[in-house]
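User: Thanks for the earlier help. One more: DUF4815 domain-containing protein. Can you show the sequence and predicted structure together?

Assistant: Of course, both are below.
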Amino acid sequence: PQLGFKGIGDAIFRDGDVITGSNCIIDRETGKVTLESGKIYLRGAVRKVEKEEFVIPLSTTVRIGVYYVESTITELEDENLRDPAIGTRNYQEVGAARLKISTIWGYQAEGLSPRFSEGEFYPIYNIENGVLIEHSPPPQANIVTTALARYDKEANGSYVVNGLEVMFLQKEEGEGGKKIFVINEGKAHVDGYEIELPHSIRISFDEDPDIKAVESEPHTFQPNSQRVMELKVNDFPISEIKKVDITIQKTITITHGSYSGAIDPIPDSAVLEIIQAKQGNVIYENSVDYKLNAGNVDWSLPGKEPAPGSSYQITYRCRTHVSPEDISEEGCKVKGAVDNSLVLIDYTWKMPRFDLITIDSKGVVRRIKGIAHPWRPSMPRAPSGQLLLCYIHQTWKNGEGVKIVNNAIHAVPMNELEAMKKGINDLYALVAEERLRSDANSREPTTKKGVFVDSFFDDDMRDQGISQSAAIVNKELILPIDVTIADIDGGEKTYLLPYELEPVLEQLLQTKGEKINPYQAFDPVPAQITLNKNIDHWTEVTTNWKSPVTRVFNVKETTELLSSTSYEAEFMREAVQDFEIEGFEPNERLKEIKFDGMSIQPTA
């Protein structure tokens, strides 16, 4: 019977499945783990585990589970295993031993020796860098779950239900610091199995770029006023500068050999040329008095030479290695070289790369590295059994942030599918209409038997380089209608209907006035001038195509504002302004009229 129950249990549960309780609580600051008491299925039976607390490492992968330990209890450990029947022949005889089964919480850390050495370990929880990756609910029938997973995988594949967006958080300080990413909480189906993250988790990956070596990259030494050149390499960011080879110019004193025609060695290797050789005020001529031979000064030529054993100075140029200064990701600073000379640099740089972040059916997050390339890195594909969450464009440049594109496959709700279906139907209608128009145009070719033909659909076949005076309206070529704009707001002329004046109110009497002060014994009242500003409106019309004007004129009169722009005009046209002058006698002669300091001549 016990084997029968075990068979039934194994068909429904797996070893390590949580039945009740057994929650895992992690303190990310200290690594302290608290495991509650509960019941776990192990070896055909539901077994009870007690509450436990311990500390786990936070910088690696840790699996927390239950250790299954079997031990034998005999009469030596338990006196109650002897026969307690007094007065019988079997009194205090040894009875059967007992099998004791213990289940205790424990863990195994990657790269570390196990804390417990006895018993079989059954993992339940998976911890990545102090974060609980997967928390499985109480199990159901495995046969049913497997069937549903197979159906979901075959019908829909792997997809994200909600959440699980990936964001870049920060990079750890120091050389070789890891890049830390955050995956938001959410739910996904991977190969039919449901993966749920109840809270966001942090994951970190090593910064391990692919390195490419560059040898003898040429540059021309062009220093600044401080005789220092800021050298920028062709490919960056730089991983390491191996060597900088420059041309320098030196002047040294050499002691001539003990005989005429001797060869004097130069202490530097890779000598390119000798600029000058002199002794006192005597300057020796190259290729006449001496020559450069295998990096030495050869005086075997029949010209002049210093006395044997005497000292002379030479100025020469040679190649040498220097240590770069102020190394950055784009280059370094170089000094001491000859102007416009060749600078060769050997370095390694970090090639760009595309990486993927995936999750599998167990909730394990992985990074899939792509193939790096100097200018065209290839995009990797997610392996089978893993769901793609995002891809990362690794440029390795300090000034650029990590580029993340969340391109996971999402489950599409039915309402979105219906809206998509409606949009596709509308798109088909537009495409059909465009095809009809294209078909009509294609049936009327531009050239028939060497004769130019225009179907007069529109102005597409006309020469836009010259002004077109004819108009195409309703597939007909007709004479255009010139539009004349009447500027009724100009103020110079008033447009009215024909009319005749009729008196409506008349005053035939008048009132006579008498001067109160006929001698004008006071200062005259100053004249008052009122400027009635005239707002000038005018329209500038530029017409290149006559067809739209004629087409609108024939159909109806419309006003359509396509755009409006306001700006200050550079020049204004001449306009009439009205002035009202008061305080002068009738027929009094005005000596001068000025406006803004300029003399003007009134028209009326």
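User: Great, one quick takeaway?

Assistant: The CA atoms of residues 473 and 551 lie 5 Å apart.
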